[in-house]
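If your schedule permits, I should be very grateful for your opinion on a structural question. The matter concerns a single protein, recorded as an amino acid sequence and a row of backbone structure tokens. Could you please explain, in whatever detail you think fit, how the structure tokens follow from the sequence? I set the record out below, with my sincere thanks for your time.

——
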Amino acid sequence: AGADTVKRAVELDLASRFQESLVCYQEGIDLLLQVVKATKDEAKKQRFRQKISEYMTRAEDIKKHIEKEKQDGKYHKQIRIEENATGFGYEKLFQEYLTEIVSEVWVEDPYIRHVHQLYNFLRFCEMLVKGPCKVKTIHLLTSYDEGSGRNQQMSGLEEIQQSLRNYGVTLNIAFSSSIHDREIRFNNGWMIKIGRGLDYFKKPQGRFSIGYCDFDLRPCHETTVDVFHTKHTKKM
């Protein structure tokens, strides 16, 4: 298993998929270290140690490369969420980028309309309020519900707006009939694009089923998450 994982790491490395490659190198190294512990043949142990040392050196080089890309604003990380995967609550995706200097957030998502989508946005806002960032302003750009649910959409957003105000956070809401792209930006330069926007969770089996409250336990729809860093964040 260790050899297969390292082989995959090398393939990803050659394809310049460095973030994924680093994860595979780290997993492969851990597996090979376990093999070394269980091996009694000293010659084999020495060969394993030599290969592990080479892989560790390459993993450190990749780490430095990724860090430099972050500093240069060229960083790109892609996460593929498989159908029915769990463990992808909002904290999992965003917490790494919500540093203490984040005070302003932009959300562009055309589908903050229906009740469950309003709850998605509310949970995202709750994550921001909990910190460690010090968010003061959230900008939401979405589209109007074109059916009978517009009144519910508006009252729901206004309630979220009022509730955020109680926590010292201003929510600015704007609507666009042509919005299509989905992205979330923080004023520390990080930008996250999710193929399905905030609405990538599947409907729970029931109101009292596991995953109803905890999004980490909720199965997901298949989607792709792209994370970028830009030196200049465009405002709406």
Remarks:
- Helices lie at 2-14, 18-38, 42-72, 90-94, 115-130, 150-165.
- Residues 83 and 222 are 4 Å apart (CA to CA).
